[in-house]
Amino acid sequence: MAVEKFDCIVVGAGVAGTATAYLLAKAGINTLLIERGDYPGSKNVMGGVLYRHPTEEIIPGFWREAPLERPVVEQRLWILDQDSAVTLGYKGKHFGREPYNNFTVLRAKFDRWFAKQAVEAGALLITETVVEDLLYEGNKVVGVRTGRADGDVRADVVVLAEGVNSMLTQKAGLQHDGLNTAQLAVAVKEVIALPKEKIEDRFNLEPNEGATIELVGESTQGMVGTGFIYTNKDSISIGCGALLSQVVRNRWNPNELLERLKNHPVVKPLLEGGETKEYAGHLIPEGGYNAIPKLYRDGLLVVGDAAMLVNGIHREGSNMAMMSGKYAAETVIHARERGDFSSATLSLYEKKLKDSFILKDLQKYQNASAFFETNDHLFTLYPKLANFVAREFTTVDNVPKKEKQRKIMEGVTAKRSKFQLAKDFYRLWRVMG
Amino acid sequence: MKSLEDKLFLNRYQADKHSHLKIKDREVCKYCETRPCTYICPAKVYAWNDKDEIIETAYEGCVECGTCRYGCAHDNIDWRNPRGGFGIAYKYG
Ligand SMILES: Cc1cc2nc3c(=O)[nH]c(=O)nc-3n(C[C@H](O)[C@H](O)[C@H](O)COP(=O)(O)OP(=O)(O)OC[C@H]3O[C@@H](n4cnc5c(N)ncnc54)[C@H](O)[C@@H]3O)c2cc1C
Ligand code: SF4
Ligand code: SF4
Question: Which of A321, A349, A351, B6 could covalently link to A16 via disulfide, CB atoms 3.0 to 4.6 Å apart?
Answer without folding.
Answer: A321
